[in-house]
Amino acid sequence: MAFSFNKLKNILNTNKDSTLSGSGSSEPEIGFKLSLHPISKNLFVTVIGARNLPSFFGLSRAHGYLVKVKVFPGDNKYETTLQDTSNPVWNEDFKFQLKPKDSKKTDLQSQLAGHFLSLTIYALLDTPKPDDKKKSSKTLDAKTTMNTMNEEPKKSLLSSFSSFKVSKESTAQKNILEKRRTVGAATWNFDSKLFQNDLKNGLIGTPDIWRPINAITSGLSTTDTRRENRKGQLEVTLLYSGSEDGFNDTVQLTVNRLRCSVQTMQEHEQFKAPLYLKATILEANKAECYWKSDRFVPTISARWDPKSATVKLSVFKVNLNKVSIYISLGCKTKMAKKEILGKATIDDKSAYSESWTETLRQPGVPKTFWVNFE
């Protein structure tokens, strides 16, 4: 059944009060509700608000809060607007598409199985600055007006302005990343029993749900916890492919995902700089090729697209014993100093020698495993 998104907002946002009752807890918590169209499988997440958020991070004061919203499995993620109170009210809606494991099963429990909601709350430590783009545009207009009789100076000015604008936007984005602090996160596994409210336009919905913000963990199971290094873990996939003549074998590494404890994430935030991952394949201790991620804010969990987060080395088969892989997690501080927050090595002499040897013994068979940062 077709219906407009604006109408849906009117259905979901019936209560726009500036205060939130919450669950009654005095601890930080976040409220949300979900609505689902069972036929189209469109899912709507309403972020209601949060309560009792911390106002200070060390000596810095929070000037606003926002929430990153993501549904797993799925690729889409959204952010709320910035609210400048420790008890923010958002009432903002975000649309997702369910991805049932078995599309043939149409019952609600099967459609929701394996899905969960992740809400990450961020604080911005500085008041957002006015849009530099608007200011620069006015300056450009004034200068180009003075040069209306000379086309060449105009083109030169426009070219310079374009470079200046890109540089300013990149700097602004970096400043935002540096001034963000993670307050915490909350997750909720979809429960078909809570989708009891019959709404208009064929929608079914949950009541308001409140979750403690500090309830989320690094995602490690009990069996994994004992192996987790305090600097975090990285899931990688190793693949070896042989060639007929042994002159064009390949060793390929794919970075899948990162996970850290909340404590580790908070330690990363102390550097006040975005992070990056770098994976390098070496032959005879010489770096031959590498992959480097885009910069990202400190987090307890991050994923990368396998199609782009891959590095591959062509090597002679007789030289495989000289190949090794070095992975680092780092950041660059405001003083342009590089800090290595964690590192790991994969080769026949490392802690992952068993996975390395098994990969080389089975050409064409990918091997996925976790490595600990040291």
Q: Care to describe what's here?
A:
With 374 residues, this protein is of the alpha+beta class. The chain folds into 2 domains: 29-127 and 177-212, Immunoglobulin-like (Sandwich); 233-372, Immunoglobulin-like. It is 21% helix and 38% strand. The chain contains 7 helices and 21 strands. It has helices at 5-12, 108-112, 132-146, 151-179, 222-225, 262-269, 353-361; strands spanning 29-37, 42-51, 56-57, 60-61, 64-72, 77-79, 89-97, 116-124, 180-189, 197-198, 204-205, 209-212, 233-241, 249-259, 275-283, 286-292, 301-303, 310-315, 323-332, 338-346, 367-372. Strands 1, 2, 7, 10, 11 and 12 form a 6-stranded antiparallel beta sheet that branches. β5 and β6 (77-79) form a beta hairpin. α3 (132-146) runs antiparallel to α4. Mean pLDDT is 80; it is low at 9-17, 132-149 and 215-228.
